[in-house]
Design brief:
The complex is a heterodimer. By secondary structure, chain A is α+β, with helices and mostly antiparallel strands. Chain A has four helices and three strands, in the order αβααββα. In chain A, 50% of the residues lie in helices and 14% in strands. By secondary structure, chain B is α+β, with helices and mostly antiparallel strands. The chains are: A alpha+beta, B alpha+beta.
């Protein structure tokens, strides 16, 4: 496991969580797994940042949670995007893309 | 709206915290288990799988803590935490808590008690519908010579009722006594005599039966009576069938037509019966201002407009009615109407006194707060280390301040609760010993307004004394404190300044209160030195006896019976003198009228038309109460029995009419046109009938039995008060003997208004002594708290500077000098306080001026003596702790560091 690891950039965690939930409701562990999977193990949500973020997002009304039974008949809290959360995700994505493009443009300038 | 929703959410989430907490636990367990499963699948040993899962997750407790930060309502939770800390911190320091809470309780309790009185007497409206429209009607006149104003005559009532444009209802009332003579026992009752408009103006309906109608007030109709609730219960056992029955009032049957509700109180009167005033317009004259006027203003009419309206009607009245025989009608033109809101009339100048008390008690509260603030500062200083550690561990400045403030609030509420109990106790005492001169005392209760007041008072006191340590203990320099090894010398200077300022404030306020009570004490002493016109009143027993016309019709026999009673009373052992009077001096039992001197120049009409007090006495009355005979002689029984036309006058009246007491002897006076001239046979010393703080009124003494007086054929006093001088006055045994003696003459004659002349005298001083007692209590509290304040500051300064003292002592500084250093500090503080306080004291004295007598509000002796006394006490309060420090062995002190 000597892959390069990326520390999460400040403020991107919320966006990633929202993105992870875009497709379907998931529980906390599932979100961690999905982000690691999608980022090909580069992004790791370790060190307990996920749960505070989930509770914060719920308080902000961007996601909501309810208790469901998993496929292995265990009880787990599932998080889902609210309509407000979906809108928020779109704005954040647009914002992120703009920023990325701008940053990339700067970085791609080739020195003569 | 938003903050409300937010607040609600926080409150709700408070109850949800447990549920969330359990949910979080389960969620984290689930997360870790899933991770373990995954690790197992990738081929780890179970132990390794568990270890790795935990590592990956991070510290479970830390995650929980930071997650909690997200879901708990931070502010409420923190406040609750602070509250818990606060209570715990207070419990850890029981002595501090006790002292602080008691100090506060004293301040808050006293303030609450006085506020309750102020609220009940001054603020609360009278218990009548739309009571702001109620006014009292009186009249003043130049002829009253500065005396209290008079009320209305019935002719004025009729004119005003007919002609006025400003009143919805208008009526008169007077108080009286009657004997209820039927049933098992005869008794004397107090009556309220009203005209048609009086109770209509108040807007009260009887609880049973009906109200007086116009017919009841007309002469010749069947006589009627309304019974007050108290008397209904006392005499008739609340029998509802009483309405319609007949009751013999003063031997004449009256039909009971109604019962008043229990809640009805007529101003400060406590009558048993309400009787209709009967008006026979044909017999009325201009004079006879014996009734109090009461009216309800028509909607939109102001007191000023009503006054103007009345002034317009006075000439109409003079035209419309015949004058009193022998009095020129132009003399009545002098009268000026006096319309005042009923509440103001009822409260009188007690208002001023109560506001002064409220202010002074408020100062005591401020002093108490200053003391608690001082204690808090001390405590905060001791806890500096603890606070510094909390700050270092990341508690924000706001959080620390919040914690200190919450502690103060808890303390404030504790003090407030104790204070409320104190106030409750104080009010119970007050309502029993409170002076009768405070009106509406019976209306005073702890009510919701007062409770809210106390709550606000507690919280604002807490903010007052709590914010001072908070301001002084910002976390700014707490880190430095830690570094300085907990000694925190950095801003101790600044904090000492705060404590010094508090002490200066305390001393200043204490000085103000001491000066105030000093002035009151002087006033009281000055009043006590005025000879009231009688001597040793505590040894004069009074008891009133009424012989009604129903019992004994013949006036001659009434006089004989009264004489018999006197003879029997004189045989009681220990009774040295005995006599009786129709109206007791200083008791407000009065009648007033003009007299005419035979040889007083005609031009000197104003002297003749002035109103004089009339008092009817039996022989020996002057000697019994100790009024000095200045010239001539007292009445004799022969004067009475032979109906000789004689009179005795007071010294000031003799001087006014004939310049000299002796010159008055042999001169003749009379009270009206058809009466015989009566010879002045004696002149006696002045009696301060209106109270010793007023000028002594001029008094005419008539024999209690006379012929052709004020239009009456025979004038006999049927209700008389016996006065007995005895060293046993006021004792039960004497009263028993008095009752026995009386019943030997007439069976079952009730003794009423049993008291000593001393009681009457102290009642006349009651308002002053009440203000005096309250001010002295306030000043004593202030002084005590001030001393504690100075002592505390110096004692603390001493402990703080122990090392310095040790070094100085080791270097050879003499002990006296070290002591002087601290005493100087204390005295300087007191000096600053006295300086500030003098200005405030002068301001208070100015407000108090109307309560003072025989002393200037700026009496230099009082100001100087109290200032010096306060400085002396301050020096003493600083000397005690200063001495303690210098007694310590310097070597020990220094090693102790």
């Amino acid at each position: 496991m000597t892959k390069e690891r990326g520390d999460l950039l400040q403020g991107t965690l919320a966006m990633l969580v929202l993105k992870a939930l875009q497709l379907e409701p998931m529980h906390g562990w599932g979100i961690t797994e999905r982000i690691e999977q999608w980022s090909e193990q580069v992004l790791q949500l370790g060190q307990g940042t996920l749960y505070p973020a989930l509770y914060r997002l719920e308080r902000q009304g961007l996601i909501r949670s309810d208790w469901r039974v998993t496929e292995n008949s265990r009880r787990a809290r599932y998080y889902a995007l609210t309509r407000q959360g979906r809108r928020q995700l779109e704005t954040e994505l647009a914002q992120w893309r703009r920023t990325c493009r701008a940053v990339n443009q700067v970085l791609d300038v080739t020195m003569p | 709206m938003r903050w409300r929703r937010e607040g609600w959410r926080r409150l709700r989430s408070l109850t949800r915290v447990d549920r969330l907490e359990r949910g979080l636990d389960e969620e984290i367990r689930f997360h870790i288990e899933r991770q373990m499963d995954k690790n197992l699948r990738s081929g780890m040993t179970p132990d390794e799988a568990r270890r790795q899962a935990y590592i990956k997750f991070g510290g479970v407790e830390r995650v929980k803590e930071s997650t909690r930060d997200e879901f708990r309502p931070a502010l409420v939770q923190d406040s609750l935490l602070d509250l818990r800390y606060g209570v715990r911190a207070l419990r850890r320091a029981p002595v501090f808590t006790l002292v602080a809470a008691l100090t506060l309780a004293l301040g808050i309790g006293a303030t609450t008690a006085v506020f309750t009185v102020v609220h009940g007497v001054l603020i609360k409206p009278l218990p009548f519908r739309d009571s702001d429209a109620l006014v009292s009607l009186k009249h003043t006149s130049k002829d009253l010579n500065g005396g209290p104003p008079v009320g209305l005559s019935l002719s004025l009532l009729l004119t005003y009722t007919r002609e006025n444009r400003s009143f919805e209802q208008l009526g008169v009332w007077s108080r009286g006594t009657e004997n209820v003579t039927d049933g098992i026992f005869p008794e004397e009752v107090t009556t309220l005599n009203v005209s048609l408009g009086t109770l209509r103006a108040l807007g009260i309906q009887p609880a049973l039966g009906r109200w007086f109608s116009e017919e009841d007030h007309a002469p010749g109709s069947p006589e009627t009576v309304i019974i007050m609730d108290g008397y209904w219960g006392r005499r008739f056992g609340r029998d509802p069938a009483i309405v319609g029955r007949q009751v013999a009032v003063d031997s004449r049957p009256r039909v009971v037509i109604g019962v008043m509700p229990a809640s009805f109180r007529f101003l400060d009167e406590t009558p048993d019966l309400v009787l209709p005033v009967r008006i026979d317009a044909g017999t009325l004259t201009l004079g006879g201002f014996n009734y109090e006027g009461l009216a309800r203003l028509a909607p939109g009419v102001t007191v000023e407009q009503a006054s103007t309206d009345i002034r317009r009607m006075v000439p109409l009245w003079i035209e419309a009615w015949p004058s009193f025989p022998g009095i020129d009608r132009s003399e009545f033109g002098q009268i000026t109407p006096l319309v005042r809101p009923l509440k103001q009339e009822l409260v009188g100048n007690v208002g001023n006194m109560l506001w002064v008390l409220m202010g002074t008690i408020g100062m005591v509260l401020v002093i108490a707060c200053a003391n608690v603030a001082n204690l808090m500062l001390l405590r905060a200083q001791d806890r500096q280390h603890e606070l510094a550690i909390q700050a270092a561990l990341g508690a924000g400045r706001g959080r620390l301040a919040g914690q200190l403030l919450v502690e103060s609030l808890v303390l404030g509420l504790l003090g407030g609760t104790l204070g409320l109990l104190l106030a409750f106790a104080a009010l119970r005492v007050l309502s029993t010993i409170g002076p009768a001169s405070i009106p509406r005392l019976h209306e005073i209760t702890l009510n919701p307004t007062v409770l809210v007041f106390t709550l606000v008072l507690s919280l604002s006191s807490a903010l007052l004394f709590g914010s001072i340590p908070v301001a002084r203990f910002g976390s700014r320099r707490l880190a430095l404190t830690l570094r300085a090894g907990g000694r925190g010398s950095n801003d101790s200077q600044e904090r000492n300044r705060a404590r010094n300022i508090l002490v200066v404030v305390q001393v200043a306020l204490a000085l103000i209160l001491l000066v105030g009570s000093g002035l009151m004490v002087r006033t009281f002493l000055a009043l006590r030195t005025v000879p009231p016109g009688f001597t040793d009143p505590d040894h004069v027993q009074l008891a009133r006896v009424t012989i009604s016309a129903a019992q004994v019709d013949d006036p001659e026999r009434v006089l004989r019976l009264q004489h018999d009673m006197l003879d029997r009373l004189a045989t009681i052992p220990g009774v040295t003198d005995v006599s009786f009077t129709g109206n007791v001096p200083m008791a407000g039992e009065r009648s007033r009228s003009s007299i005419y001197g035979e040889d007083v120049p005609i031009g000197d009409l104003s002297a003749q038309s002035q109103l004089r007090w009339f008092r009817y006495v039996a022989p020996g009355f002057f000697q019994t109460i100790g009024t000095r005979l200045i010239a001539g002689r007292d009445f004799t029984w022969v004067d009475l029995e032979d109906r000789r036309p004689v009179a005795v006058i007071s010294e000031n009246l003799a001087r006014e009419l004939w310049r000299e007491p002796r010159a008055a002897l042999g001169k003749r006076i009379r009270e009206g046109d058809g009466s015989p001239w009566r010879e002045v046979v004696g002149v006696v010393g002045d009696v301060y009938d209106d109270g010793v703080h007023r000028q002594a009124p001029s008094i005419v003494y008539w024999p209690s039995f006379m012929e052709t007086f004020l239009g009456q054929q025979v004038n006999v006093r049927r209700a008389v008060t016996f006065a007995m001088r005895s060293s046993r006055a006021g004792s039960e045994s004497l009263l028993r003997q008095v009752r026995d003696a009386m019943s030997g003459v007439i069976a079952d004659v009730p003794l009423t208004r049993v008291r000593t002349l001393g009681d009457v005298y102290s009642r006349s001083l009651a308002a002053t002594s009440f203000a005096l007692v309250m001010l002295v209590i306030a000043a004593a509290l202030a002084l005590l708290l001030g001393i504690v304040g100075i002592y505390g500051v110096i004692a603390y300064a001493v402990t703080q500077r122990r090392r310095e003292i040790g070094i100085r002592a080791a270097l050879g500084a003499p002990r006296r000098e070290l002591e002087a250093m601290f005493v100087r500090h204390g005295v300087m503080l007191a000096l600053a306080g006295v300086g500030c306080g003098l200005a405030g004291a002068a301001a208070l004295a100015r407000v108090m001026a109307s309560l003072l007598f025989g002393t200037s509000p700026f009496d230099p002796t009082i100001y100087v003596m109290i200032s010096l006394g306060l400085m002396g006490i301050a020096a003493l309060a600083s000397y005690v702790p200063a001495r303690r420090a210098t007694l310590v062995d310097p070597a020990l002190t220094m090693r102790g560091e």
